Amino acid sequence: MLEAILYVFPAYVANATPVVTVRLLGKSTPLDMGLRAWDGRRILGDGKTVEGLLSGVVAGSSIGLLIYYFVNLFRSVSEPFILALGAMVGDIFGSFIKRRIGLERGRSLPLLDQLGFLLFSLIFSSLIYGLPRWMKLDVFLILLIITFILHISTNYVAYILGLKNRPY
Ligand code: CTP
Ligand code: MG
Question: I want to staple 49 with a disulfide (CB 3.0 to 4.6 A). Which of 28, 91, 142, 155 is the partner?
């Protein structure tokens, strides 16, 4: 179980970094450049930015690199990068889905909000490197539950710290 958490740590870090980056920078560039989709709504919305994406990938990969050098866990030095990238793509994909079903930026879509990034991250890494060796149904399900709880609690902390406008 510990191995599973350490493995997805780059995805966690990638997912948590953008909110800090955007607050530190004070300004940001929407990934969708403000464009709208066929339904008249924003493609992604102002919550997905270039700065957020880049900082998430860099931070997630960096933490992963650190793990790579201390623990024999990743199969390639680029696996943490793939995990971080997958997490960011999953998060962006989630916003795309939310906009298409009419949810404004910042509104919650339970399960997709908390687990989408992790699933994409694991799909990305598994397609490239194969399933990680810790992958078993019971470990996977517990990882989903831990991630769900961790996501909700870290977002609540970010809200308390004034990093986010909403507690989820
Ligand atoms: N963020 C960013 N770029 C990203 C992902 C996140 O700048 N690629 C920042 C945004 O400031 C965003 C915050 O991190 O508001 C929290 O992320 P999230 O909860 O995913 O975004 P929401 O604002 O809730 O927007 P959405 O409804 O699209 O998920
Ligand atoms: Mg949100």
Answer: 28
